[in-house]
Write a structure and sequence with these properties.
single chain, alpha/beta, TIM Barrel, 11 helices
Length: 340
Amino acid sequence: MNDTMWIHTLEKQALAGESLNREAILRLLALDPASEAALCLGRAAGRLARVATGNRGRVWSAIGLDCRPCPKNCTFCAFGARWGLMREERELAPAEVIDTARRLVHDGADWVTLRTTEFYGFERLCRLARQVRDAVPGAYHMVVNTGQMGDAEVRAMQAAGIDVVYHSLRLGEGACTCFTPEERLETLRAVARSPLRLAHLVEPVGPEHSNEEIAHVLMTALENGAVLSGVMARVAVPGTPDGRREVLSERRLAQLTAITRLCGGLRVPDICVHPASRLAVEWGANVVVVEGGAVPRHEAFCGEAWRGFDMAQARALLREAGYAVNTAEAAPGRDGNCAP
């Protein structure tokens, strides 16, 4: 069966609730991003996205709470102490976080993510999450993106009003980071055992990562019950070891997004691409990211939205691609269809 016919078969299987196996994922990853087969893949993923999402586009917002020189020294992260980019600590006050969250929800954010370094403090994070939840009304999802955790921490998060955890087994884990894959997997398992929902992107992806590595991380996300997945490209942050490395082409990023959409099928309604890409949105993504504050992909604290990509631009991008989105002054989820 040629690639085009085979991709149409995969689309039908995804609509029927069937999962793709490793062999199929690797075959899709091996397609030339510039080929007609890749274009067919992107169009199939775009059609599947409309069904899986009910034609809803969504915005994931993230507030980086703190940055400081970090001894973990992940090669792709601006915070690594060894790189000398972050020379002093910077931390948002609770009032600043609440004000930012209020503005994001007012502007239509579906998720509000509190992102921390490994050193913020778990109890402080839960306390802040409860303050945000109490001060900012709306049907948005409260997310945390923090360090490793076990069953006790997961229970505390739920009690604090958190309902989604962002955590990933990252590409190059144990080589580009100082964490072992098993450490990351332990947290994924703890979330999977709980009522909390998991968000897990395939990240940070660069041309240096093999198809086998990408397939493994994608399958890890799905096997651990991720309800939001997608792809985050590695950003070349000047001054980090990865700062001079080639980055993914937009076409390859869109291809990986489309593959994630087909793998998620109807079980993973929300597929995210970061940084935002119009082509990736056309090829299956329905979620884009607006972030600010401490951003590990930037060499300085971001007082405004990272790279200028704000809520208005995010909504416009999704709308131009044909998605219905929350509007400013409209609390997300009022239609009863706020996923995950």
